[in-house]
Write a structure and sequence with these properties.
The complex is a heterotrimer of chains A (about 350), B (about 500) and C (about 300). Chain B is about 30% helix and about 25% strand. With about 500 residues, chain B is of the alpha/beta class. Chain B is globular and about 70 Å long. The chains are: A mainly alpha (about 350), B alpha/beta (about 500), C mainly alpha (about 300).
Chain lengths: ~350, ~500, ~300
């Protein structure tokens, strides 16, 4: 126990330094793209950081982009813990947000302390159902959740597109009518004038509560313990009397429910209605967020902040370089994170081998 | 004497161990040479080095008097060496024909020339009585036939040296007999065969010469007719075989586990267990001896609720367990040391303390209303680590980093901490070093002395003989003999285990 | 309505939609038969289309355009190959990242070259082989005389033979099913996996080229989910070239029908769902069993 650990073995190396290194490297590659356009990378990055982090408006925009990424990241992370790969957060959040809007438009006159939980619940149920389907199919037929969630994303998009443009829309628009005013989540600028004009709202608190819930559930509760056993060794779970199928379904359902909460930010806190195309790949970005955050709920929050900053940052640098620079950066971050994780693990294993040898001889 | 293979001073190190330590081995052309040793003695590594899967750290290889450099299986194939691995190297979804030609295909106009190849293979198969259905998918065939495909695969590549790694481990006795016929035929036709095994009856039956390995070294080499199983066995284990663990006489009480008319037919319709009957009483260890693959795995899975038997009853203290989910089986008073610790017994990415509650995690002592009681889990770990001498003594150590012996101790500690009436221990010391083995054996005996019923399943005959109070022999899914004590000769057991004696007549006596 | 469906124009429409699906889908078959999951098809199609437009625009030659498109697809696929085969990182995440990268990089360069964030300038189309007997229907004649249509048919048929009847195909299937077994008989596992991924890059790049010529320009995100439909068709077609192509034809037919029937009857969104729901049903085992190559998505670690 008193044995001194090599720096490679500290969990902070893997959980913190490796992702940070990947991010730094990605910015370095991004600098090449900036230079190609004929701009000074340092200037561009200075603008990127100062305009997003340097004032309350920028921070507000950043946080507004961060909230849905936290939900999506948590959704992916909890499924990862159960050994499942949820590529379906995009579809789940569409269904969840639509459910929130739908319930909201039919429940006028309900007091806020009921209406707000009701709409949150609608998102949870909507997303949860959409997560339950691939979970059930995986548990009962063995059908791979990756393909099924991809397919269900498209089915969800088509469904909400149909209902939001043909059935429940305000005529000549692609959005639904407004939700009941009591279902609105207040913006920051109601209380803090510095955030004036930025759409950030208190749904970010729901996101933080959700992160704490996921951490507590995974790390501290019995169902969380079972879920982790299932994720790491399903045979051992079977051996330990743990119902594997139930855990697979449960984790996908919880994952879907978390993604379904995205509607709290957009529908309840920003536009107050559901609009076709409101999410531009948030669910996919959730995969990157979970990955960068090492599937740790608090890591997810940090990663969501970075990706939220990049998403808003694209707009502030658009006059200097095409804003797509940030999509490129995001993609490179993902590739670097998966690569460096892999390379890091290999290095660690090799190091441990040589150490064992030297101890033996 | 002409040698087909000469290995000179081969040394191969792995991270934790020296697998082959300056090994020198010569195999005469046209002979069957047995390479024997216990699990982990380095037999397979030596032969996989010859086959080019590993590169030796030092040493030379000569094939037919010519020194050769073998850097890959391809080099080895070019030298006329073929290997039938213990786990077949076949592609299940491809046909037999496709598997045989893979990597050595004949083509005509860019397409595979299947007609010509079929003819060649059929001719080969006829020559060595190796009939196989060429156009069926390998996944639809039994293991005996798959093995023939492997042999044909080597012969198709013009192998004249054939290495077989534990070829009978997966075969029924009839299939084994047939395999030996094929091997004799191959020898007749001038092929050289190296047989890796730890079954001494096979060595005596078929080999011309035998080399014994222990802990990475060759410790003996002799002509088969001049030696005896006893001599080989002593060389293998490095001590007189009749090592019995010290223990007092069993103080047997009432039956705890009673199995009657238990049968199990698997998904493919193969009858794996046939009308099994036996019981285990409190205060005794019943050992089940048998060649692996005779239904032991499924017997344990039926008892522990992992699979549901087709018919029969399994009663634990009078309660029929059949149909119970795993958790309820455990709750009825059973502990289970699974045969494969990495597959079922442990979550290797979990810490030791998390592993120590697997299957007990629903117990009240580890749970408060909302969360698990971390202090109780920690305390449980500290107590068990101390009691079972798990190293390192760190509840937060990741199980993956523990040695095999310590991983096994974690499982034993956890299962014995259930304080169950019946302990089902499957291969409890597989891959565990001598010190660990002794510790585990003592733990099992002390449980017996506390009045527990122990069902021991082991492929290690020495273990069965030294621990058991009574010994049952399983063969082809049947209990063919139950000896009332452990005063039985290994050779006698062997006769039952290989189906030479028994044949179900003794089953009724059970 | 029946006459509408049976018309030559309808047939042409169906083929127009099916070709890019089929090319990408067969690309997917090569990659996954060799054991590399390829969700990156979507991004490869997009870069393929973009490079085709750029090549054609600057040289005026559609042939050079196709070469550029194929090279662009190949390069994109190579990123996937390096990450999946050499670094052995997660192939699904790699694919997603590449799709994201493709969207970003094409728009990024689009803005630099064409000063627009949505579309490129117009490019010429492919020359077509004259089809005298239907010249009275110029659209149909153009399509059936399109060399890429003929090439696609040839690729579909050839692939069926290549995968199941040649040495290359046998080895490719072996490394995707049991790489260790392939290794022990001397087959270079990673090399064959590279071949599989590279062929998928070429074919999905061609698929992009088709879209570029069909539209005579590049518009942002113009792959529009075709890579995922191709993936779906590959699964519905059970990883066989002919099966995949048949599934693509089915999806193309449905889509074409939807265009034909627009305005009346079934909402378009429900027809859009057909490929996805078909895939889910097939995967669940309701129609036969779809079994992926056993080592699909699993990197090959040589040392035990």
């Amino acid at each position: 126990m008193a044995e001194k650990r090599h720096w490679l073995e500290h969990s902070i190396t893997q959980n913190f330094f490796v992702p940070v290194l990947a991010v730094v490297l990605s910015f370095a590659v991004g600098a090449i793209f900036i230079a190609i356009v004929g701009q000074n990378p340092i200037e561009v990055y200075y603008v990127l950081f100062s305009q997003t982090l340097g004032n309350e408006y920028g921070i507000g925009q950043l946080l507004f982009k961060t909230t849905p990424l936290i939900f999506a990241g948590l959704s992916v992370a909890i499924c990862f813990k159960a050994g499942l790969f949820n590529i379906g957060a995009e579809g789940q959040l569409q269904i969840g947000a639509f459910a929130t809007a739908l319930v909201g438009m039919y429940t006028f006159g309900v007091p806020a302390f009921i209406e707000i939980p009701l709409l949150v619940l609608a998102g949870i149920v909507g997303g949860g159902i959409w997560g339950f389907i691939p979970g059930y199919l995986k548990a009962k037929t063995g059908a791979h959740e990756v393909i099924n969630t991809i397919m269900l994303n498209f089915v969800a998009l088509a469904l909400v597109s149909y209902f939001a443009t043909n059935i429940y829309n305000v005529p000549a628009t692609v959005h639904t009518p407004s939700i009941a005013p009591t279902g609105r989540i207040p913006r920051f600028d109601v209380f803090f004038s510095g955030f004036e004009g930025s759409p950030v709202n208190f749904s970010i608190l729901i996101a933080i509560v959700a992160a704490i819930f996921v951490w507590y559930y995974i790390d501290r509760t019995r169902p969380g313990y079972e879920l982790r056993v299932v994720g790491l060794n399903a045979k051992a779970a079977e051996f330990g009397g743990i119902n594997v199928a139930r855990n697979l379904i449960l984790s996908m359902t919880i994952g879907g429910a978390l993604a379904g909460l995205v509607g709290t930010n957009y529908v309840m806190g920003y536009k107050y209605y559901f609009e076709e195309g409101f999410s531009t790949g948030t669910g996919f970005m959730g995969i990157a967020v979970a990955l960068l955050g090492n599937n740790n709920p608090f890591g997810v929050i940090l990663a969501a902040l970075l990706f939220g900053m990049l998403e808003y940052g694209g707009l502030v640098i658009n006059t200097m370089v095409p804003k797509e620079l940030v999509s490129i950066l995001q993609a490179i971050v993902i590739i670097f994170v998966i690569s460096s994780n892999k390379i890091f693990r290999k290095t660690l294993v090799n190091y441990m081998k040589t150490r064992t040898l030297s101890v033996n001889q | 004497m002409k040698y087909a293979i000469e290995l000179v001073g081969i040394t191969k190190r792995f991270a934790r161990t020296v697998a082959n330590d300056n090994v020198t081995l010569s195999v005469s052309a046209g002979s069957i040479h047995a390479l024997v040793g216990e699990n982990g003695a380095g037999k397979t590594t030596l032969m996989e080095t010859l086959y080019g899967i590993y590169q030796p750290d030092s040493g030379k290889i000569r094939i037919h008097d010519t020194e050769v450099a073998i850097k890959s299986p391809q080099d080895s194939i070019r030298q006329g060496i073929g290997m039938v691995h213990q786990h077949f190297m076949l592609v299940p979804t491809l046909s037999v024909l496709e598997n045989i030609i893979l990597g050595a295909e004949d083509t005509r106009n860019a397409f595979l020339d299947l007609a010509k190849t079929s003819e060649r293979i059929t001719a080969l198969a006829d020559k060595f009585s190796l009939s196989v259905p060429l156009n069926e998918k390998v996944q639809d065939l039994g293991v005996g036939i798959q093995q023939r495909v492997e042999i044909l695969k080597a012969l198709y590549r013009k192998a004249d040296i054939l290495i077989l790694d534990e070829p009978t481990a997966v075969l029924t006795p009839q299939e084994s007999t047939r395999l030996f016929g094929i091997l004799s035929e191959l020898k007749q036709q001038g092929k050289t065969i190296v047989l890796i095994t730890h079954k001494l009856n096979e060595v005596m039956e078929i080999s011309d010469r035998v080399s014994v390995m222990r802990k990475g070294k060759i410790v003996g080499e002799m002509d088969t007719p001049t030696t005896s199983p006893q001599e080989i066995a002593e060389l293998m284990v490095g001590r007189p075989v009749l090592l019995r663990v010290e223990k007092s006489k069993a103080n047997t009480g009432k039956p705890v586990l009673s199995i009657s008319n238990l049968s199990y037919v698997d998904r493919r319709g193969v009858e794996i267990l046939k009308n099994v009957n036996f019981s285990v009483a409190s205060g005794e260890i019943l050992g089940i001896a048998g060649v692996e693959g005779n239904g032991q795995t499924q017997l344990v899975e039926c008892i522990t609720g992992l699979v549901k038997p087709t018919s029969g009853t399994i009663s634990l203290n009078g309660v029929n367990l059949v149909g119970f989910p795993v958790k309820r089986v455990f709750d009825s008073g059973l502990a289970h040391v699974p045969e494969d610790r990495l597959k079922r017994g442990l979550v290797v990415d979990f810490t030791v303390k998390e592993n120590l509650i697997l299957g007990l995690h629903t117990r009240q002592e580890f749970n408060s209303r909302l969360s698990m009681r971390r202090s109780a889990i920690e305390q449980n770990a500290r107590m068990l680590i101390k009691k079972y001498d798990v190293r390192p003594d760190d509840p937060d150590a990741i199980a993956r980093g523990l040695s095999g012996g310590n991983q096994q101790k974690v499982i034993i500690a956890r299962e014995l901490s259930r304080n169950a009436q019946l302990i089902v221990a499957s291969q409890p010391t597989r891959g565990v070093d001598i010190g660990g083995t002794e510790f585990i054996h003592r733990s099992i005996i002390s449980e017996r002395d506390k009045g527990k019923a122990v069902l021991l399943i082991s492929a290690d005959l020495t273990e069965v003989l030294s621990l058991s109070d009574r010994i049952a022999v399983i063969y082809d899914g049947m209990i063919v003999k139950i000896f009332p004590d452990n005063k039985v000769e290994e050779s006698e057991l062997g006769l039952f285990m290989t189906g030479t004696k028994g044949n179900g007549r003794e089953a009724s006596l059970a | 309505m029946i006459s509408q469906i049976l018309s030559l124009a309808f047939l042409a429409q169906t083929i127009r939609i099916t070709v890019p699906y089929a090319l990408a889908s067969i690309g997917g078959v090569y990659s996954e038969r060799g054991g590399v999951t390829n969700i990156a098809l979507e991004g490869i199609i997009l870069t393929g289309a973009f490079c085709t437009v750029v090549g054609t625009y600057y040289t005026g030659s559609p042939l050079v355009g196709i070469l550029c498109g194929v090279s662009g697809g190949l390069l994109t696929a190579l990123i996937h190959a390096v990450v999946s085969i050499n670094i052995k990182a997660d192939q699904i995440i790699s694919g997603i990242a590449i799709n994201l990268f493709a969207v970003g990089i094409t728009k990024f360069v689009l803005e630099i070259l064409f000063h627009s964030s949505s579309n490129s300038s117009r490019i010429v189309g492919l020359p077509h082989i004259p089809m005298g007997f239907i010249e009275h229907q110029p659209d149909v004649a153009h399509l059936l005389g399109n060399p890429m249509v003929l090439a696609t048919i040839a690729i579909i048929i050839a692939s069926q033979f290549i995968i199941f009847r040649t040495r290359f195909g046998l080895r490719l299937r072996a490394v995707g099913e049991n790489p260790e077994a392939a290794d022990t008989v001397g087959i270079k596992v990673n090399l064959y996996r590279y071949y599989g991924v590279m062929i998928s890059g070429v074919l999905a790049g061609l698929s992009g080229a088709w879209l570029a010529f069909d539209q005579h320009s590049f518009t942002d995100g113009m792959s529009a989910g075709r890579g995922y439909i191709a993936l779906a068709a590959m699964i519905v077609g059970k990883w066989n070239p002919l099966g995949a192509a048949a599934a693509c034809l089915l999806f193309g037919f449905a889509e074409s029908l939807q265009i034909q029937l627009q305005g009346g009857g079934l909402p378009t969104q429900f027809i859009q769902m057909i490929p996805y729901i078909a895939t889910i049903i097939v995967l669940a085992g309701f129609i036969g069993k779809a079994v992926a190559p056993a080592a699909d998505g699993v990197p090959y670690e040589k040392e035990k």
